[in-house]
Amino acid sequence: MLVTLSALSAPSCVASTEESPCGDPSAISVDGTITRGASEVIVSSPHNIEGTLRSDVLIDRVMVGGVLAENKGAGNYASWSASLERQDLEGGRTPGEGVSEIEVVAWDYCGNPHEIGTVVLPVGDAPGVSVTGLELLPIELPGGECYLPADGQAAAIVKVAADARSAGSSVKLHASQGSFSGTAPTLELTLARDGDRAAALAYFASTAPGTALLSVSAGGASAAPRSVLVSGPPQITPSAKTIPLGTSYLATVRTRGNLDYCVVEASQPDRSQAAIVEPALGIIDRVMSVKSDAVDCSAAEVLRVEVRFAPEALVGAEVVLRCVDTFGQEGTATFTAGET
Questions:
Q1: Is residue 185 within 8 Å of residue 176, measured between CB atoms?
Q2: Half-sphere exposure of 253 toward its Cβ, with a 13 Å CA cutoff?
Q3: So which domain of life are we looking at (predicted)?
Q4: Which pLDDT belongs to residue 125?
């Protein structure tokens, strides 16, 4: 998760020192190079594609076709790689031609895509398809949410459908991370007649924050993948800070999911306060709902919380800030009054 914080010596500095974590996309510099994976001969699976990336913003993920790349560098996808199976190569096939076009796209934490390049791979003639009309339906997330928690305590419903004549055929689900029905990242299902179609379902959960890519294949057939955002608990930065008496400090609460409420516990509530200044929600009086009416995971949710101790507060007084997301995951930070 991208975390942004600002330190203030007085409340009057808030407006002049704070900037949005998501600026003008045209001002963001992201570029990269595909260093391995090009081929002039027909490729087999798994086929590896590798590259490098340079960015002045934090990168959420690098997509190689429908595959989530692995971060191989010291951080921020400075070096990445992806292993493409046959269904991934078939997913990029140009209709009527024996080539597959694999696009490489980096996504930053503000939801902006950055095209890195395209690899055109010879893949030969299309294989025979025993399952027709194969489709991975929209993922059903619990509670009408747009993400899953990274504590593995909530699961999404994943449903595969195909033409009715495909009933009885086997299909294979694959996840880039997480597991299906509490077992493994790969699960084989048998399609059963479901009205005028054939279908099967499974449950998906994850304990790893990030973006999970779900795909399905059956023999030579494949369908467009689906992505599931998996968010860890809200992050409060800093998680601990000493603030001189009579001054304030601006902390950042950030989550890739959706916040529900924030709680303040103060040892000297009459001589300290915590207020949400961005958006301007005001002082947190023990418990404050921060849940938005709209369910939106297109970008990280960010709160700015100003914590202040009065000059007459006792050294060592504490303010504990807790923020909880809509699945009950909690982030905590402790602020302590220090000498002026």
A1: yes
A2: 31
A3: Bacteria
A4: 64
Task: Give buried/exposed letters for 159-193 (b at 16+ CB in 10 A, else e).
Answer: bbbbbbebbebebbbbbbbbbbeeeebebebebee
Q: Nearest to residue 169, comparing CAs of 196, 144, 200?
A: 200
Q: Which of 126, 143, 162 is the last residue of a domain?
A: 126
| Among candidate residues 17, 10, 223, 220, the one with its CA nearest the CA of residue 133 | 223
Could you give the number of structural domains in the chain? 3
What value, to the nearest 5°, has the Cα angle with vertex 162 and ends 157 and 163? 150
Q: Which residue has the tokens 């992050």?
A: 235
Domain of 276, in residue numbers: 233-338
Structure confidence at residue 259 (pLDDT): 97
Phi, psi of 195 (to 5 degrees): 65, -125
- Tell me the C-alpha distance between 217 and 100, whole Å: 17
Q: For the chain of 340 residues, list the mean pLDDT of each consecutive stretch of 10.
A: 32 37 71 91 89 90 91 86 87 78 91 92 69 93 96 96 86 93 87 90 95 89 92 97 96 97 97 96 95 91 97 97 98 96
Planar angle of CA 294, 295, 299, nearest 5 degrees: 105
Amino acid identity, position 192 = A
Secondary structure (3-state) at 166: helix
**Residues constituting the chain:** 340
Decide if 282 is inside a domain: yes
Q: How many CA atoms lie within 13 A of 73 on its CB side?
A: 15
CATH of the domain at 106: 2.60.40.10
Q: What is the pLDDT of residue 22?
A: 65
Scanning the structure block, which residue is given the tokens 């279908």? Answer: 199
Q: What is the pLDDT of residue 15?
A: 34
